[in-house]
Structures are given as structure tokens and as C-alpha cells.
Amino acid sequence: MTDIDPSPHPVAAPGCPVHPDAVPLAGLEYQQTPSELYRGLRAEHGAVAPVLLDGGIPAWLVLGYPEVSYVTSHDELFARDSRRWNQWGSIPPDWPLLPYVGHQPSVLFTEGEEHRRRAGVITQALAGIDQFELARDCRHLADRLIAAFAGSGRAELMSGYAHPLPMRAAVRMCGMPHTGVETRQLVEDLRISLDAAEGDDPVAAYTRVGERIHQLVRHKRERPGPDVTSRMLTHPAGLTDEEIVQDLISVIAAAQQPTANWIGNTLRLLLTDERFALNVSGGRLSVGEALNEVLWLDTPTQNFIGRWAVNDTQLGGRHIRAGDCLVLGFAAANTDPQLWPEAHVGAENSAHLSFSNGEHRCPYPAPLLADVVARTAVETLLERLPDLVLALEPGELTWRPSIWMRGLTALPALFTPVVA
Q: For residue 110, which of 114, 145, 203, 418 is within the disulfide window of CB 3.0 to 4.6 Å?
């Protein structure tokens, strides 16, 4: 695996000074009630707020829906190649956010024609997935997971259902076995690299992920099959093994962790909101509305780092220096009061930014595939266990300690035991 490259462009912009009112992107307030903090930041700073990343590294958090849309639509002004960053001289080699921002030969960091070439390979590889077959496979996976706890009358739905189902679906799509020690370790290392907890080593975890995907690519070179990896390997664009490894990591990571939290956050909404209480068991419309509302109000990817200013520019009344880092606040943008002036988010609307926007948005048809996985997971669970209820009060549920991902630490539930 190619090492993460933190080196700057040959001509680096001068470092941006720390704003005197910069707010650390950390702490319990962010982790448990981020919407309140976004509201406070917006009131004090407007659509673009000065923030501090881990270790006091300065950046800008883009909070406004128009501003996030503008940044993601103008790659010529706000680019993805992180080697432009004017702060590399302050970044230690074990910085916890390095897996996010250290330059890699991945589609995530490419620009222009190269990005279109790489994204085109992913798009065609994903387009080869039959959505009806995917739904059928996910239903079988869901049935197996449910069978493991159905007889007990209780379950912890995050670790026992919401996380393993999209994990197994993602690795199966890529041609890996969906069970086994190596697969479980891969998923755990992906979690660490994307959403490290205290004591985790995200850089080491990311290295292990790369080594495992390298093994998969070598295997598929020798024995191709009807899977995403094989289609990427045989695409006329002729990507190198290293390019395919990096892009597969992006595909699997996007398919597993965000989809798992989308499932969990939707189940939480269905089990705690009285608007859905009368129609959760098998109600397709209610499930669809809940899935979409979650993307507006509790989107799995809360914040994304990031974009880097190509030149000095203005955004939201702020002077952005060349090389400054911008964190995209998808969760804040989705609840922008300019978008919803009466604080009512219309769940029937799908113009949220949860899959980003512009050329670097989640490539088609990935959002459709994620919807198939999430919808099948939720509907199957509610059909199999129609009297499913929370095992505790809604206010006792807690969120994972992350400003990047929005997901529950646990979702304990009770139901009438089902005998196989």
C-alpha cells in the first residue's frame, strides 16, 4: 500500500493565522447535540465559521446550504488535492485525522479529467450490480442476522444488525467472503480509520485496510468474477492495482459505515417518533419517509474534510487564503434556516447534501444502492418483528463520540420472541 503523503505542493501558501474566535471541533456538545452547536456557530459567525481541528489546527467550517453547494460546485476554487494545504508544516506524523486528509492515489483526491476517469470506472462497476438481486441478497442477510436473536426477544440492533448487514453486503459486492475473521478485521479497521475512538490508531488501521484490499485485488486478477473489483480491473481505463485498491477502500468505506448509521438512525426515528408509530410494521411509505428525513436531520456523514482553497477568495463574508482547509458541514447545511425558515424540514424533498454535490458527490448509482440496502434492512426487520419497541427511554440513547459520523452507540430493542 502506498503511504499517506502529507507533503505540500512545491509552492505552498502561507499558513493562515488562528482566528481569535475559532471554536474547537471537539467535545461532548458536538457529539451529543451538534444541531445546537451549529445553531450557535451560525448565530455568532454566519455561514462560515473559524474552527480548530485536532491539535489546534485552524480550518473553516462551512455551515450554510448555499455556501456548501457553492464550494462543492466550484472545484476550480475549492479543490480536493490536500497537498495544497498551508498547514502541513504543523501536522505531526501520527495526527488522528491523517487518514482523512493525507494525500493518497485515490479518486477522492483526484481533480479534473483524472477524477472523471476514475469516477467513471467506479460508476460503471457499480452499475453492473442488479438492484433486485441486491435487495434479495440483503433480505437473505437480514433474515440470517434476525434469526440469530429472534428467539431471545431482545437485541442490540447496532452491533447485531445495522452494522453487520451493510458490511456483508459491501464485501459481497466487491467479491470478498461476507463472513470470517479477515472480513471482520477489515470492517473494524475501516471503522477505526474513519471514526477513531480513544486509544485507536487510525493510521495503522488504514494501513491494514490497504493490505487486505491488495490481497483481494491480486486474487481477482487471477480469478475474476461477477463483482465490482473484477469489473474495475477489466475496465478499458486500465487503472493500476494501486489505484483500484485506493478506490475500493473508498467504495467499501462509503457503503458500510454511513449506511449502517443510516439504518440505525432510521430505526431510532421509527421507534421514537409518534408520527410513524401507527404504521411502522411493513409500511413502505413510512419507511421511505423516515429514510429521507434522516438524511435531512440526522445524516450519517455530519461533516467532511474537506476542500482546499486554490487562491485567495471570499466565502460567506470571510477572507479565505490560498491553501486554507474547508470542512463541509453537511448536517448544518441540511438544516440551514435559510432553507427551512419555519424550522420545518420537508422530508418529501430529496435536495439534501448528504451525498455531497458536484463532481465529487457520491458517484451514481451508489446512493441508489445504499437506499436498497438501508430500505431492505429496515423493512425486513419490521416485517419479521412487527411489535419491535425500544428497551429503554428514547432520552437514554447516546450517540457515538464523533463530529464526523452521526450514529448511535447502541439501539437495544424488545419484541415477542419468534421461534424458528
A: 114
Name the amino acid, one letter, at 245: V
141 membership: H or E segment, kind and range:
helix 131-149
Question: DSSP letter at 370?
Answer: H
8 A C-beta contact, residue 291 and residue 270: no
State which residues form the domain around 201: 23-57+98-302+333-414
Is there a domain that residue 268 lies in? yes
Q: Whole-model pTM above 0.85?
A: yes
Please give the mean pLDDT across all residues of the chain. Answer: 88
Grid-cell match 491488495, residue found:
214
In whole angstroms, what is the distance from residue 41 CA to residue 49 CA? 7
Higher pLDDT, 272 or 277: 272
Which DSSP string do the residues of 151-208 spell out, in sequence order?
Answer: GGTEEEHIIIIITHHHHHHHHHHTTS-SSSHHHHHHHHHHHHHHSPPTT--HHHHHHH
One DSSP character per residue, 253-272 reads: HHHHHHHHHHHHHHHHHHHH
User: To 5 degrees, how large is the angle CA 303–CA 334–CA 44?
Assistant: 75
Give tens-digit pLDDT for 368-377.
Answer: 999 999 999 9
Question: Per the structure, how many domains does the chain have?
Answer: 1
Angle between helices 241-272 and 284-297 (to 10 degrees): 110
Q: 209-243: per-residue pLDDT in tens?
A: 889 999 999 999 999 999 999 999 999 999 999 99
Here the cell at position 236 is: 478499458
Closest CA to 283 of 368, 379, 350, 375: 379
- Output the pLDDT for position 35: 84
- Asked if the structure places residue 318 within a domain, the reply is no
pLDDT per position as a tens digit, 275-334:
776 544 544 458 988 999 999 999 999 999 989 999 999 999 999 999 999 999 999 999
